[in-house]
């Protein structure tokens, strides 16, 4: 049975900061961000937009009423959870009006969670071919003002509908994972921002890739020559490029082709920043919507990496007519976001919800987005759908 991605959607918050402005404010050469990190802009989420509202918005963009009656599992992968106990998927299930007899869960392993969700969705469809699974990767990447990771921050969500006989991409059964108990990027329960061993994290990203790819090649017999394109986890675009170069150095011909596709696969990531679990799938969306070189049946290689660390290499094949299920004007939509100066970015991105003695929010800013957090009442988050 063919199982894979039938639909894919994306949502970013409506605010953005130009990294040239951030560089000027931090007294850093703008080329460090533009060329050194290969990033141009970063999405900024106000306090009324969290992983629930962004996830619901990404999913709402692709789901029909019929889909909502057929989905029987909602999986949200995230690093930036809103609750230690209740799954964001339960809030999203409610906001979208998905039929009640569904399983809704959250998965965590840094930037890898949604990839695990995709595998679970695939197994579920193999068992129940008539069902549909909604997999959402939703994150807000915040490192703090003037921190090393600040120019790689971002926010956004990717939603994928996983079904039998998918219309965009068939996922193959060639997955190879690796787990390494390391501390390269982590966030203790008492911390707002992650703790990072920056240089070590970049080395681990690449070493996990090269060692897992060796194992993948041994297991599957596939080589880089078999792939039309590669999508990697993109904490910042230069990291993905370095990863590709590390596995491609023994095959310059494939590396040249995959590098051309790579630049098409980071068009959106450069404008949004890191969205942790969703970054690899935003890269897929960018590839599909910005490449004219791809053909049906082309095979795409994936490298998912979550610090801590778990990684996975897998592949998928494009389905004839996949272009009909995309959104060709997405770049235009991204250009319409409100540009913030650096002091407004600092005020909006790092604003904290103030609670009174009953656990209720004082007053949240107005937000006209399709889904928004309106208030907290007795420690309960209250969302509204426009
Ligand atoms: N012009 C052009 N390039 C310049 C430059 C200039 N004026 N100044 C510096 N650069 C280049 C540097 O040469 C370097 O490029 P190379 O790595 O190719 O040599 C690049 O810009 C970055 O410079 P630094 O290494 O000096 O930057 P830094 O130390 O300030 O920070 C970082 C880099 C450690 C990655 C930091 O951004 C960070 O901590 N990021 C968060 C952690 C992260 O993203 N890790 C990635 C792997 S972990 C993961 O993937 C999970 C996840 O999502 C977090």
TrEMBL record:
<dbReference type="InterPro" id="IPR011554">
    <property type="entry name" value="HMG_CoA_synthase_prok"/>
</dbReference>
<dbReference type="GO" id="GO:0004421">
    <property type="term" value="F:hydroxymethylglutaryl-CoA synthase activity"/>
</dbReference>
<comment type="similarity">
    <text>Belongs to the thiolase-like superfamily. HMG-CoA synthase family.</text>
</comment>
<keyword id="KW-0808">Transferase</keyword>
<dbReference type="InterPro" id="IPR013746">
    <property type="entry name" value="HMG_CoA_synt_C_dom"/>
</dbReference>
<feature type="domain" description="Hydroxymethylglutaryl-coenzyme A synthase C-terminal">
    <location>
        <begin position="179"/>
        <end position="246"/>
    </location>
</feature>
<protein>
    <submittedName>
        <fullName>Hydroxymethylglutaryl-CoA synthase</fullName>
        <ecNumber>2.3.3.10</ecNumber>
    </submittedName>
</protein>
<keyword id="KW-0012">Acyltransferase</keyword>
<dbReference type="InterPro" id="IPR016039">
    <property type="entry name" value="Thiolase-like"/>
</dbReference>
<dbReference type="Pfam" id="PF08540">
    <property type="entry name" value="HMG_CoA_synt_C"/>
</dbReference>
<dbReference type="InterPro" id="IPR013528">
    <property type="entry name" value="HMG_CoA_synth_N"/>
</dbReference>
<dbReference type="Pfam" id="PF01154">
    <property type="entry name" value="HMG_CoA_synt_N"/>
</dbReference>
<feature type="domain" description="Hydroxymethylglutaryl-coenzyme A synthase C-terminal">
    <location>
        <begin position="256"/>
        <end position="324"/>
    </location>
</feature>
<feature type="domain" description="Hydroxymethylglutaryl-coenzyme A synthase N-terminal">
    <location>
        <begin position="3"/>
        <end position="164"/>
    </location>
</feature>
């Amino acid at each position: 049975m063919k199982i894979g991605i039938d639909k894919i959607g994306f949502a970013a918050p409506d605010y953005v900061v130009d990294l040239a402005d951030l560089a000027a404010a931090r007294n850093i050469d703008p080329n460090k961000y533009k060329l050194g990190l290969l990033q141009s802009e970063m999405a900024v989420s106000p306090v009324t937009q969290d992983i629930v509202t962004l996830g619901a918005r990404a999913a709402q963009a692709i789901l029909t009423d019929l889909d909502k009656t057929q989905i029987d599992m909602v999986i949200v992968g995230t690093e930036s959870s809103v609750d230690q106990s209740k799954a964001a998927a339960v809030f999203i299930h409610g906001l979208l009006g998905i039929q009640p007899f569904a399983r809704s869960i959250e998965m965590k392993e840094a930037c890898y969670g949604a990839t695990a969700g995709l595998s679970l969705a695939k197994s579920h469809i193999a068992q129940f071919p008539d069902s549909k699974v909604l997999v959402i990767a939703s994150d807000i990447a915040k490192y703090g003002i003037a921190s090393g990771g600040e120019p790689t921050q971002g926010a956004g969500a990717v939603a994928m509908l996983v079904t039998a006989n998918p219309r965009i991409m068939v996922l193959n059964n060639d997955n190879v994972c690796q787990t390494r108990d390391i501390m390269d990027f982590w966030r203790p329960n008492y911390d707002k921002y992650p703790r990072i061993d920056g240089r070590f994290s970049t080395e681990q990203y690449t070493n996990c890739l090269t060692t897992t790819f060796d194992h993948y090649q041994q297991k599957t017999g596939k080589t880089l020559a078999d792939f039309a394109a590669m999508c990697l986890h993109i904490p910042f675009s230069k990291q993905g490029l370095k990863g590709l170069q590390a596995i491609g150095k023994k095959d310059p011909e494939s590396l040249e082709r995959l590098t051309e596709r790579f630049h098409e696969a980071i068009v959106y990531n450069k404008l949004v920043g890191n969205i942790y679990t969703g970054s690899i799938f935003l890269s897929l969306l960018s590839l599909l919507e910005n490449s004219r070189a791809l053909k049906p049946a082309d095979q795409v290689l994936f490298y998912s990496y979550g610090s801590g660390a778990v990684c996975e290499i897998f592949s998928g094949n494009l389905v004839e007519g996949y272009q009909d299920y995309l959104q060709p004007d997405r770049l235009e939509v991204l250009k319409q976001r409100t540009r913030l100066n650096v002091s407004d970015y600092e005020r909006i991105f790092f604003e904290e919800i103030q609670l009174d003695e009953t656990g209720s929010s004082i007053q949240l800013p107005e937000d006209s987005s399709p889904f928004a957090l309106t208030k907290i009442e007795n420690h309960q988050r209250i969302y509204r759908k426009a």
